Amino acid sequence: MIHHPLSHPLILPSVYSAADADLRTQIPSEEAEETHSNLTFVKQSISLIGTPSASVERNTILHSPSHVELTCNFSGDINSVRVIWKKEGEQINSSHIFINQTGNVLYTQYTLQILNSTQLGSYACVFEDAVERRGRGVFNFKVPEVHGKDKPLISYEGDSVVMICKSENSVPLTWIWFKVNETGQVPVETEMKEKYELASKYANETKLKILQLSEQDGGSYTCRAIFPLGGSEGKVDLKVLSYLVPLKPFLAIAAEVIILVTIILLYEMHTKRKQNTTEGEKEFEQIEQLKSEDSNGIENNTTRHRKI
């Protein structure tokens, strides 16, 4: 059963003085949850003090359908200040909005039920005058987050890999795995037991084991947790490598060594060949010189014989 805000007494939250707040925005720590007509009762409040255009934002995780009570108060110069409530930027017109003024404090309360995913999102109390916005409090409601893995998983063809997703402090109704391709998300065929295995040790986590990895198994995977108020997704990236990949650096180094050794051998062969050619030319010149000297000696002897 939901009580109309006017049907029961309202308790104004504590108002911080401008001196205590140092003219800055304050967020009270008041937040309560209890069972209310088979719904979770969530109560939150925000105080805005003193500064023009003050803004406060609060994020809330809802695990199940909830009865929500939101309160905002604005203190300071409240002359000509009005307050409106908005959802995703659109003004809310509801009989469940209550506004009250006490001294220099303008107080507002909004009660609602969040029963499905369309009612999640941002709700804002906005205080403004004819000239400017004086303050704003934003309440963001969403389902629990799902965490995959930030860094890619790396494995090799023929091996197996286990991908894990977790939901902190919340148990989803079910888990669904998807493979991301060019056209979108495709459900993983977990019925193929020879290829996939689903396992989880805890209710708030899911594990997908892929057997006999191939290059086609690489890519992005999405794990979707289904909660009473909607779904939440995590992401896991998988890289599948060939066993030749780790050898590529060594093969590249070996190729460089072979090329270097070949160049050195060719240089040595060229140097030796050049040395041999030079030595052969020297020997040839020496032989020619000896022949020339022998010829000169014979000619000299002949001349001497003629003179005699």
Automatic annotation (TrEMBL):
<keyword id="KW-1003">Cell membrane</keyword>
<dbReference type="InterPro" id="IPR036179">
    <property type="entry name" value="Ig-like_dom_sf"/>
</dbReference>
<feature type="compositionally biased region" description="Basic and acidic residues">
    <location>
        <begin position="279"/>
        <end position="294"/>
    </location>
</feature>
<dbReference type="InterPro" id="IPR013151">
    <property type="entry name" value="Immunoglobulin_dom"/>
</dbReference>
<dbReference type="InterPro" id="IPR007110">
    <property type="entry name" value="Ig-like_dom"/>
</dbReference>
<feature type="domain" description="Ig-like">
    <location>
        <begin position="52"/>
        <end position="125"/>
    </location>
</feature>
<dbReference type="InterPro" id="IPR003599">
    <property type="entry name" value="Ig_sub"/>
</dbReference>
<keyword id="KW-0393">Immunoglobulin domain</keyword>
<comment type="subunit">
    <text>Interacts with SLC16A1, SLC16A6 and SLC16A7.</text>
</comment>
<dbReference type="Pfam" id="PF13927">
    <property type="entry name" value="Ig_3"/>
</dbReference>
<keyword id="KW-0325">Glycoprotein</keyword>
<keyword id="KW-1133">Transmembrane helix</keyword>
<dbReference type="Pfam" id="PF00047">
    <property type="entry name" value="ig"/>
</dbReference>
<dbReference type="InterPro" id="IPR013783">
    <property type="entry name" value="Ig-like_fold"/>
</dbReference>
<protein>
    <recommendedName>
        <fullName>Embigin</fullName>
    </recommendedName>
</protein>
<keyword id="KW-0472">Membrane</keyword>
<feature type="transmembrane region" description="Helical">
    <location>
        <begin position="249"/>
        <end position="267"/>
    </location>
</feature>
<dbReference type="GO" id="GO:0045202">
    <property type="term" value="C:synapse"/>
</dbReference>
<keyword id="KW-0597">Phosphoprotein</keyword>
<dbReference type="GO" id="GO:0005886">
    <property type="term" value="C:plasma membrane"/>
</dbReference>
<keyword id="KW-0732">Signal</keyword>
<keyword id="KW-0812">Transmembrane</keyword>
<feature type="domain" description="Ig-like">
    <location>
        <begin position="144"/>
        <end position="242"/>
    </location>
</feature>
<keyword id="KW-1015">Disulfide bond</keyword>
<keyword id="KW-0677">Repeat</keyword>
<feature type="region of interest" description="Disordered">
    <location>
        <begin position="277"/>
        <end position="308"/>
    </location>
</feature>
<keyword id="KW-0770">Synapse</keyword>
